[in-house]
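Hello,

Our lab assistant flagged a job as stuck in the queue for most of the afternoon. It eventually completed. Since we weren't sure the result was trustworthy after the delay, we are filing this so someone can double-check. Below is the sequence as submitted and the structure that was eventually returned. Let us know if re-running is recommended.
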Amino acid sequence: MARAILKWDIEDYFGMQQNSAYFEEENTRAEDKFMQVYPNPSEASFNVLFAGNMPDAYRVIDVTGKTVLQGVVNNSLMELDLSQMPSGVYLLIATINNEVLHSKRLIKTNK
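-- returned structure --
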């Protein structure tokens, strides 16, 4: 299976003329079935469903690279509550033994 790295520029996404940040998001159609996030975008919570290899931990980072949420994966379905976070783009990173297993862009919107 081929892997593709998708780089996207936060500056372009929001049309800002400030310092830009880059997320590297590993995405292939086959990988999408191993970590699904819904609803996305969301105003508050994101459901994350894992299939196949189960990660043992996760973290959510903001556009500056700061970890804003992290934890242990206990089962194949979990809920991420970002209701207290400002609207914006975040990156969910699922890991196993500190190695990135999956990553997915999250879009947090205002109510």
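-- support follow-up --
The delay was a queue issue, not a problem with the job. The result is valid. Strands lie at 5-9, 22-26, 35-38, 45-50, 57-61, 67-72, 77-81, 88-96, 99-108. The mean pLDDT is 80.
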